[in-house]
Amino acid sequence: MKSILDVTVSCFANFKAAGNPQPVNLLQWLRSDKYANRVVNIRTIADKKERDALKATLPAITPSGQFTYREASSLVQHSGLICLDIDFKGNEQISNYNYLKKELSHIRNVAYCGLSVSGTGLFLLVPIAYPEQHVSQFNALQQLFKSHFSVRIDNTPDVARLRGYSFDAEGYYNHYATPFTGLYKAPVITRRSVPTITASDAGEILSHCIKLVETASEGQRHQQLLKAARLAGGFVAGGFIDENLVVETLETIVSKWPNFTKSRKTIRDGLSNGKQSPLHIDGWRCSQQYSTGYKSVVGTITKQYSNSGNMQRVSAAEVDLSPDIKAAEHSVGSNEYLSDIAATSTYNQDASVAPTRIKDQVNPPILTDDLPLTMTELALQRMNQRNPALQRLVETLDLVDKETGRSIRFTN
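Request: output the structure for the sequence above.
Response:
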């Protein structure tokens, strides 16, 4: 059977070239080491401007098809593939890209996954079922990666976008990848009322953010500052706190830290990221309550497991879900409001301490429209990832969502 990557695409002399494209075989291009030495040299350069200038001299392809000129209207034949970029910028919470690469390679829709030119990011090739709806399918993939994997995909939906030459001796290939069928659906956020800023709401939010930053250990300062700013950004977008107040407060705290300039940038990056997902104060309060309540459940059944000496069955009644979970799910209508839980990414952990892995499943997942977990399931999965003993135990449980009547999914 022919590889799904065995297609013809257009190659351009460099990033600036728009005309005179040459046909190349995509699979051969991915395997070629013709410019590998130049890529290795680029990866040793610390200065970003110098690195970008050299990257722009490398040849580049249009992975989504053949063109007579580098613009969407000049498409001759679609390749049936979409290219996705995962860069460090916007994904600061990811510290282990090698682990992320291994995880993504277990998704059946991924045909290729390899290092970017700089070596600090990844790019993926995903076959799509509806090339004529290229932009819609790209947006659907971007939406799913954000909601399910907490990974930001660069916003490059243009069918004529370029992918510069890169080299990865350990690139992942899946020659028979399953075409992605999802189409973009605009998210709907339900609000019970128009929020107004109150002193008590702003004070509660600010106190939580201050605590996150001030209690951070030296090695966790950047991560906690980013987390606090991202959380505050959600509330800024939701209308519950003033952005200038957040900036002034956080900058006052970090002014005592080394490299104040870097910390200020972290604050602004976090706020910008957080404002993309508005938060509601009531939903956040519920998520805090149910996170605490679920931790007590974790402690209870983990203790029973450790005392039993074997895989003892635990009934669903013994791990009944708190009403706060349902209250939170109905009051906000969005997984994004589980700020502290949903913001935690599997990929900022070492592989040895992240027990819930895609490759551990009997049937690898396919990206589908119903992929995102419910709020309840998302919280359960996040907690399971932090407790290997619990993860082994929950596989023996028959937990049923009382409202939907379906079994609760601990993984997808």
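DSSP finds 14 helices and ten strands in the chain.
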